[in-house]
Specification:
Elements: H1 11-16, H2 20-35, E1 45-47, H3 50-59, H4 61-65, E2 67-69, H5 76-85, E3 97-102, H6 111-120, E4 124-129, E5 142-146, H7 150-157, E6 162-165, H8 175-183, E7 186-190, E8 205-208, H9 211-219, H10 221-225, H11 238-253
Parallel strand pairs: 1-2, 3-4, 3-6, 4-5, 6-7, 7-8
Helix pairs in contact: 5-7
Length: about 260
């Protein structure tokens, strides 16, 4: 698989970089699926994004030939928390854009890209939620918030402007992006994130091809996202997922 920089990497390398045991686990999973021909024992493979299906197809084309894409969804519990938070006012201070980053502060999650953006955009405040051993003292506009409970995380996200998912390696979907959209935030992702394939159904989601485009978006934030709705269709809720699963099941047993 050829990456933007022109070098060849396996999908394992793209996803986990220097974690040997995690890399070996990915390798065993893909290898075992091919060796034992698991596709022969499965009626239908369900993927949460076209990107995820494409990655599997590169390892085993037969899997994608017998598959369907049903997007990931927000749980009923998560929606309840979000609905409770909708009564809370968003922040009134519009002096600086406020950005959320959710996940491990690692290269695979694009944290190095976030620090680069912090240097280029000193008037944007970046709030990182998740495990981190990275010292950000040199960046006055980067704030490590640590790992929070779901309700604490969503409560703090509600006060921010947008979520940035800057991975330049693969991620199957990004539930965090869906949660942020449901909260009313705008979301910027790269095309390495599975949810990017649903941008036509998610108006407040913007897919950026590289760091330069992200900078351009943030410098023109209000114009880029003007009039963009953050409403989620049923397809991204529990009811939508369940109805598609039931329909798929009925189709399979009817064959």
């Amino acid at each position: 698989m050829r990456t933007q920089g022109g070098n060849y990497f396996s999908i394992v390398k793209d996803n986990v970089y220097f974690d040997y045991f995690k890399s070996f686990g990915y390798y065993l999973r893909f290898k075992s699926e091919r060796i034992f021909k698991l596709e022969w024992f499965v009626d239908k493979f369900i993927f949460v994004s076209d990107l995820q299906r494409d990655v599997y197809k590169s390892f085993n084309p037969r899997i994608s030939d017998n598959s369907v894409v049903i997007p990931n969804f927000l749980s009923t519990e998560c929606i309840q928390i979000i609905n409770d938070l909708k009564n809370q006012n968003k922040r009134m201070d519009k002096s600086n854009l406020k950005c959320a980053f959710i996940g491990r502060a690692t290269q695979e999650k694009g944290f190095d890209k976030l620090l680069k953006l912090a240097s280029l955009l000193p008037d944007v405040d970046f709030f990182a939620f998740g495990d981190s051993d990275v010292n950000v003292d040199a960046y006055s506009n980067v704030h490590n918030m640590g790992r929070l409970s779901k309700i604490e995380l969503l409560t703090k996200l509600k006060k921010l402007d947008f979520l940035l998912v800057p991975n330049f390696c693969y991620e199957t979907f990004s539930i965090s992006a869906l949660e942020a959209i449901a909260l009313g935030l705008k979301v910027i992702v790269t095309d390495k994130i599975g949810i990017s394939g649903f941008s036509k159904s998610l108006p407040s989601l913007y897919v950026a091809k590289d760091l330069n485009e992200i900078v351009t978006i943030l410098n023109n934030f209000d114009n880029v996202f003007e009039g963009k709705s953050s409403e989620l269709s049923e397809a991204f809720l529990t009811a939508g997922f369940q109805s598609k699963i039931v329909k798929l099941y009925e189709e399979i047993i009817g064959e």
